[in-house]
Amino acid sequence: KYGMSRYFKYALGADNLLPLNGTASNAQFDLAGTLIDSFDTQMIMGLDSMIEEQLDYVKNMDLNPHHQNFFLGDIITVLGGLLGADYTTDNSPFLSQAGALGEILLKNYEIGINSVPYPDFDSFVNKGVFKPGMPDITIIAELGLQLEFNQLAHALDEPSLSTLPQALVTKLLKKAENLPLIPIYYNPKTEEYVSPPSYTIGRFGDGFYEYIVKQYVQTGATDENLKEYFTKYYDNVIATLVDYTPAKTLYTRQVVKGEYANIFDELACFVPGNLMLAADRLLRHEASTEDIKRAKVYQGFADQLMTSCYHLFRDQPTGLCADEVEFVNGEAKSLDSVYKLRPETMESLYYMWYYTHDRKYQDWGWEIIQSV
Questions:
Q1: What is the four-CA torsion angle of 300, 306, 309, 311, rounded to 10 degrees?
Q2: pLDDT tens digits for 184-196?
Q3: DSSP, res 28
Q4: How would you classify residue 45: left for phi > 0, otherwise alpha for psi between -120 and 50, otherwise beta?
């Protein structure tokens, strides 16, 4: 409540409040990122007294910022935030604004090379650009964006809103059918993955895998093609990307241009929660013997990886994790010195507690909150 009251006083309508000097920042979206992304959380926490002022702002907000925006962020933070807020309220402006924003964002698919959206997109002038130093290359985690558009299409009963995002994901999955995992770099001009391939479930790969499972849930766990994809990929993650330190600490490594690298990043810590969600759905609908066996493997792996993710935080003097660590002779060496408020570990801790009711996951989450 205190944090949001400061945001209202000093930064209402901005993406972020800079707490040390009390000023606003719009470096990310210029789309009221904090307000939109936190609305459903405020509702869950009972902060009703702040809601009316926000509703008025959202109703009249400008959805066409005059600069290049990070397209992935626009979708998961702002479009996803609007849809989440709509889900928790009645008679609100969130769904209509989500529809308007969705129409704007779909233009990036329309102008993109072979319907592949640009990483950065200026909707005001309808222009996209590739990332600096990465001409003609897109990152797979920034292309699996079907979940929000599917939900938007469902909420507005307009199936066409999800056509382009879903068609792209389907194409990317088919192009990787003969590969063990999804390569993280894709060339929209050649419509091929970059070779030799690089694989990771962390940075640059994370969201694509996450959304396959969540889309399976979104379909009521009925789409057998999605089930086949996520079980294939997670089986191969466990078989090919997992390694252990001499002290038997499990971590996931990366394949960089065909070569293994012992780099473990916090962004991979969405996996324990995602696997628990997958395991839960595998155990429904008269689960087969194979599904029961696979679900138990996923649950066991999720617990081990969750412990490793927790240690990324606990083993630092500040109790906060670096974005990436490299294992050298069994020791974790931080590759950066900045904690970026990543949510993946906390999200997975919630899933782990929800499905196991083991209090240790709550305790670990509370430790991290206190360290922040």
A1: -90
A2: 999 999 999 999 9
A3: S
A4: alpha
